[in-house]
Amino acid sequence: MAAKRDDRIHLEAAPVRVRVSAGEVLLADSRDAITLHERGYPTRWYLPHADIAPDRLNPSATRTHCPHKGEAQYYHLQLPGGETLEDAAWVYRQPIEAVAAIAGRVAFDHPQLRLHVESA
User: Known PANTHER family for this protein (predicted)?
Assistant: First the structure.
């Protein structure tokens, strides 16, 4: 995927391995990430849904709208022992055309999560 740029958002394929964990629990492991750089926000890593542990994602009722990406649907993350990280992941199922590459991919953000990024 070639880098896509406008004056606010920049997408690019990331030739790295991205793992998402909460403590010792591995939640996602991908070599097919897309980075989204948005002015004023931290870089986000969007991972294919297939690279995320399926038993960890529970749909949330939370929805948000971004004028630059579209409508996001959120997930709670289930950890062993019944702990739940609320609204810790999200997906743009039908993003606006400028960021269509992130459609169906999942991004994460929660204080208990760690992203590990390694060179390919």
Answer: CONSERVED PROTEIN (PTHR34310:SF8), DUF427 DOMAIN PROTEIN (AFU_ORTHOLOGUE AFUA_3G02220) (PTHR34310)
